[in-house]
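Sample pair:
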Amino acid sequence: MTTLFTSAELHKAIVLLASPPLVRLITEIDDNGAIPPRRLAGILHDLSPHHLRCAVETGRGHGLVRSVPGVGLELTEAGSALADLYDATARWARRHNCPEPVSDFGSRVRHTFDLLAAPLATEQTEGFPSPSTGTLSGPGRETDLDVLRALLIQWLTSNPQVTALPEPEPAA
């Protein structure tokens, strides 16, 4: 399988998507609906004002959340799809006791995204051991981690704004 993204694009996307404040924001809205602006700090009280502001700015900047007058901060279609991806990765991690038998949702998402990123950053995924089965992935031997990897690729392909690197500033 040829990679669709450069290593730099993939690294940027994984770091962004696995950011604890962003995972927390996206999953909170997904689980409980739109958050009124004045309730944001109270609902996400475990995030510092700086981390909360960064998560909201990141979410808006990458088209994952939007502010709706009279409603509050809600997920976009891309944000909702990301929440589904988070759920699938956390379920896989829980089933495989990753990173530990007792872990929080965010740690499971971050750990699984790290596992998914390694083979994606190479030119092909064949020959990488699957943490779920210990077998090699390849034609006819798809593992549940391969399915997650395909979901991540599909999400990234549908949301190129997350993998786009800023253009270099021209030299003065």
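The CA atoms of residues 164 and 170 lie 18 Å apart.
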